[in-house]
């Protein structure tokens, strides 16, 4: 099975692209959805959060008070790292089991929708990376229109993220979402066909003969490690 990473920048239209892939019956594993699921009442991750930050981070019904927790970690880098050390491994485990479920179901492709795919290093664990791109000017305008924020606030949010141009450097496929909806749909149609062709016949072999799947995964990881070194070297020059 071809496991593909999907990412982008704020207001580039990644969610729209994910929905277009869904329209093609391509399974999407959404990291944001999983991040909410792994901290539901009764989960080990929520228990660890309460142990670390106290019961004040819970609402009366026992669910996580996200606003309260956000206020605690927003200005404290050490506490934010502790929170990430709890949530991120839980999300990765959930993603792994979802990938396994889709593989077991005989899917040819699945897409991991991960906002911080590049920043978190997960790009090297997938077969290919898709980056949804638009220019910084369009990002800024869309963000201001979407959130009703000022130019200063929107610019500050954009500047706090890895620039979209740097993410593009890691991409195997770039979706340019600077134009009209029909142009975006045409790009997705073309890319889905390419991904299905890339999956080829080997997905059946890896499903019927798991050792082949393991060999294919290890080959992908080795290639990604080599690509990572090359890209890191190129960025330093």
UniProtKB/TrEMBL annotation:
GO molecular function, one term: ATP binding
Domain of life: Eukaryota
GO cellular component, one term: cytoplasm
Protein's GO biological process: coenzyme A biosynthetic process
Keywords of this entry: ATP-binding, Kinase, Membrane, Nucleotide-binding, Transferase, Transmembrane, Transmembrane helix
InterPro entries, sorted: Depp_CoAkinase (IPR001977), P-loop_NTPase (IPR027417)
Segments crossing the lipid bilayer: 207-226
Pfam families linked to this entry: CoaE
NCBIfam families per the UniProt record, alphabetical: dephospho-CoA kinase
Family listed: Belongs to the CoaE family.
Cited HAMAP family: Dephospho_CoA_kinase
Protein's name according to its UniProt entry: Dephospho-CoA kinase CAB5
Lineage: Eukaryota, Fungi, Dikarya, Basidiomycota, Agaricomycotina
């Amino acid at each position: 099975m071809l496991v593909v990473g999907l990412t982008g920048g704020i207001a580039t239209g990644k969610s729209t692209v994910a929905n277009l892939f869904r329209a093609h019956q391509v399974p999407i594993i959404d990291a944001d959805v999983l991040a909410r699921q792994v901290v539901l009442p009764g989960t080990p991750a929520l228990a660890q959060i309460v142990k670390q930050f106290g019961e004040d981070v819970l609402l009366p019904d026992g669910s996580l008070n996200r606003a309260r927790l956000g206020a605690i970690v927003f200005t404290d880098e050490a506490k934010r790292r502790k929170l990430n050390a709890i949530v991120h491994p839980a999300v990765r485990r959930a993603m792994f089991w979802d990938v396994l479920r889709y593989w077991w179901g005989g899917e040819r492709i699945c897409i991991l929708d991960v906002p911080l795919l590049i920043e978190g290093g997960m790009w090297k664990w997938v077969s290919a990376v898709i980056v949804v791109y638009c220019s910084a000017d369009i990002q800024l305008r869309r963000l201001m229109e979407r959130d009703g924020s000022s130019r200063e606030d929107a610019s500050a949010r954009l500047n706090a993220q890895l620039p979209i141009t740097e993410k593009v450097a890691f991409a195997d496929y770039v979706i340019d979402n600077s134009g009209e909806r029909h142009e975006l749909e045409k790009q997705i149609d073309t890319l889905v066909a390419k991904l299905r062709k890339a999956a080829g016949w080997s997905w059946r072999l890896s499903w019927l003969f798991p050792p082949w799947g393991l060999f294919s995964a290890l080959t992908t990881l080795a290639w990604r490690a080599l690509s990572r070194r090359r890209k890191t070297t190129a960025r330093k020059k």
